[in-house]
Amino acid sequence: MGGLSAVTARIVRYHEGRAPELLDRKYAAMAANPFAFYRGSCQLFVDAWPVRSALNDAPAVWSCGDLHFENLGCYKGDNRLVYFDLNDFDEAALLPVSWDITRFAASVLVGASGLRVGHADAIALANLYLDAFGEVLALGKARWVERETATGMARELLDAVRERKRKTLLNERTVKEGGRRRIRVDGVKALEASRDQRAAATRVVERLGAKLGRNKFFRVLDVARRIAGCGSLGLARFIVLVEGKGSPRGNFLLDLKEARTPASAGHSPYAQPRWKSNAERIVTVQGRVQAVSPALLSSVRMDGAGFVLRELQPLQDRMRMESWGGEIGNLRDAMSTMGQVTAWAALRASGRQGSAIADDLIAFGTERGWKRAVLAIARRVATRTLSEWREFSADSVAGRLKTEDRRSKTEA
Q1: What is the DSSP secondary-structure string of 247-283?
Q2: Which end of the chain is more exposed for a tag (fewer CB within 10 A), N or C?
């Protein structure tokens, strides 16, 4: 692609077919700082993973596939209790247990400037995560973060989500007119949906309601395009307002998100199951890995493509790099907690459809040497990512990333 660096051209090719106006937002976010670039370019991590590495022989686990600092957080489960867990499964796949923990460790190193910590502290934090992961894996028992014993950033998130009311989110994302609600289309979190998009989303959601025998709950009142995340920006995604338990106070908001083939497809040393759709893959793996799934989590089809449906929950419930408050103890605590959660997730899905049994994971946790190998690759990933980000950012500053400009040149 004329004028673009090799790295930027690869990113642009990977994102072909996504909504141009949302891609512009994604590219701007990625150009702004290295961590956002890392979040938005999972395919670069996968492409650069060493073909010959002892870490490829690590036990197979049902993996998040894109684990980093901000892909853990709190949500309300289908039992309405609050959990702190892995919370993004778009890239979920059967992968060596080493992949996710390497990607996470590299995210800490890439994000060191955003965390406002030096290189030595970032290495120490990554080691804390790996130590906690190994220790918990070696115990072989899957647990979850308890609110009563949670500390630091995880406890703050658990408390905040527990106290948050659905009505608050409704009032933030909708406006009331004549006793009825409609979605607030503000250009920041929501865009207007076309007539065809509204009709398609309505059919899918109401068909699910009929299948579940909950026609009234899933009766659609409004549909808008949703703006959220980084890696998934540009994919078809909708916010759907449904009747729920009655208008206007009992309405519910749903998230309907397109599912695409994971970046690891063709790269994993382990054979993948044949899924009916990518949405089925995501929902199935999420159900295995999390202690409890989010409310209303379902796999549906719309216009021939798989979509993941779930209750809409606030983005601020994720771990945020800027939320540690300048106290290094908060970060250390967070790293240990996230290492434990990652290990519990691997154990919870052990022995399922090709994943290693718990005994193999326990043996891996007790081994020596893999931590050093993981950290070595993580350091190389971080160094390469910073270099790639500088190239990408330079293309952005030079104005070569505007999707409208590229389309115009192609058409000319």
Answers
A1: TTTT-EEEEEEE----TTTTT-SSPPP--S-HHHHHH
A2: C
Q: Would you state the pLDDT for residue 409?
A: 45
Q: Reduce the DSSP state of residue 73 to 3 states and report it.
A: strand
**pLDDT tens-digit readout, 358-397:** 999 999 999 989 999 999 999 999 999 999 999 999 999 9
- Is the bond preceding 294 in cis, omega lying within 30 degrees of 0? no
Amino acid at 173: R
End-to-end Cα spacing for the chain: 14
Q: 60 pairs with which residues across the strands?
A: 96
The pLDDT value given to residue 148: 81
Residue 218 CA to residue 220 CA, distance in Å, equals 6
Cβ atoms within 10 Å of 273's Cβ, excluding its own: 12
164: tokens are: 């948050």
Q: What is the pLDDT of residues 39-60, one digit of tens each?
A: 999 999 999 899 888 999 999 9
Task: Tell me the backbone φ, ψ of residue 95, rounded to 5 degrees.
Answer: -135, 160
Q: Which residue has the tokens 């106070």?
A: 249
DSSP 119-168: HHHHHHHHHHHHHHHHHHHHHT------TTT--HHHHHHHHHHHH--HHH
- Degrees, nearest 5: CA angle 98-99-100: 100
Could you tell me if 190 and 169 are in contact, meaning their C-beta atoms sit under 8 angstroms apart? no
0.85 exceeded by pTM: yes
User: In this predicted model, what pLDDT tens digit does every residue of 189-225 receive, in sequence order?
Assistant: 999 999 999 999 999 999 999 999 999 999 999 999 9
